[in-house]
């Protein structure tokens, strides 16, 4: 079946130095030749400078033209790229003309989808492209690039091989019981545990992966007037939140994003929690409590000059089971450390006046999250995480029931096949339309 030829801008439609229009499909070159002045014979993968023509032959712009001959292109199909200046009307006109000449506007993610269908990239690599484009920090882009380079695929493929070997041994025994040695369950268990260990490690990296990708929600919590908003401002670096000596200054929560050691942080200033609040303040306190629920870490702030009051204690009891750091603020007003918490490693003294302790607090946040530098693969994708978890669960069941399964090799086969399927789904050897639709619909046009 002949696939239609698709076209889209590969660069955003905003005024810029240079833009790219990408055409992919069987007619890419035929169409491209009608809208660009080229020599009679052109070579593939060579940049040509020339005029970009309108359909009436008039000149739209001058630019570059590159022809990537199938299958040596991003999509694996014939691809033509036209590089005009980054002028919005020019780019739009080129696309319109390509459509008039028989092309069709690409759906979001369709170039990448074709690269996947044509075996140029696997599913994890396609997902990596989306992650790379949307990465907000260098750490996130590095993790995505490793995925794009196929590092996860390599790992998954080597695990698949181990499973396939096991499956073929068992299959041989089922089909030719006379000719092959009986497999002992020890060997199966050993191999499965080896596979499980690798998967465990990947699964364990997901928390870090999602922190790197999505950021960390940090809520500043405490009773009124302890200096939450002052701390918030000190951390974001400007007077974002209103500070005053009046209790109940912050009514609604306030959110700002910042980076600590290249990790995106969503910092929340909340209303001081107290019981004797009036109506509007009460609404704010309700919101604070809701934000506490959603936060990854709580910065529990007390006023060092007043010590640990009964009111503090009440709030502390509500948050102490969540990951938290105790911030003893207004440290400039005290001369000796408070001896209120027996022995917690998670106490930091800060002052929003002298800025003492702010750096330590930031370091403590990173330490508490356990984000250390590693070169190991990091799972940044929920789909991968879910499938890996399912694979682990199945392996555990098999190991648990190995005595039964070794006597019932057909069932054992099916179980191992199921583990294998989870891994195949990750790289995209087995997929449903739904999964693919879901993945590629998240792309932007032109990708
Ligand atoms: N101009 C331009 N820049 C781009 C892209 C693009 O499509 N066009 N990309 C789009 O995402 C990324 C690069 N991805 C690409 C991947 C493969 C091939 C390619 O031509 N592959 C051939 C030849 C490989 C080779 O010579 O080693 C192949 O795989 O056969 C091109 C771009 C980022 N930069
Ligand atoms: N000396 C000193 N004063 C501080 C410090 N941090 C805050 N303050 C003062 O404490 C008062 C209350 O500060 P805020 O930051 O508004 O307190 P809050 O916890 O946000 O209060 P609510 O929004 O009412 O819950 C203000 O007068 C601040 O100037 C500090 O580290 N040292
Ligand atoms: Mg406040």
From TrEMBL:
Subcellular location: Cytoplasm
One GO MF term: metal ion binding
Cofactor(s) recorded in Swiss-Prot or TrEMBL: K(+)
Superkingdom assignment: Bacteria
Binding locations of (6S)-5-formyl-5,6,7,8-tetrahydrofolate: 22, 81, 120, 447
Any one biological process term the GO annotation gives: tRNA wobble uridine modification
Listed EC numbers: 3.6.-.-
Pfam families cross-referenced by the UniProt entry: MMR_HSR1 (PF01926), MnmE_helical (PF12631), TrmE_N (PF10396)
UniProt-listed PROSITE patterns: G_TRME (PS51709)
GO CC aspect terms: cytosol
Domain called TrmE-type G: residue spans: 215-370
Positions bound to GTP: 225-230, 244-250, 269-272, 329-332
Record-stated family: Belongs to the TRAFAC class TrmE-Era-EngA-EngB-Septin-like GTPase superfamily. TrmE GTPase family.
Self-association and partners: Homodimer. Heterotetramer of two MnmE and two MnmG subunits.
Protein name per its UniProtKB record: tRNA modification GTPase MnmE
Lineage of producing organism: Bacteria, Pseudomonadati, Aquificota, Aquificia, Aquificales
Gene: mnmE
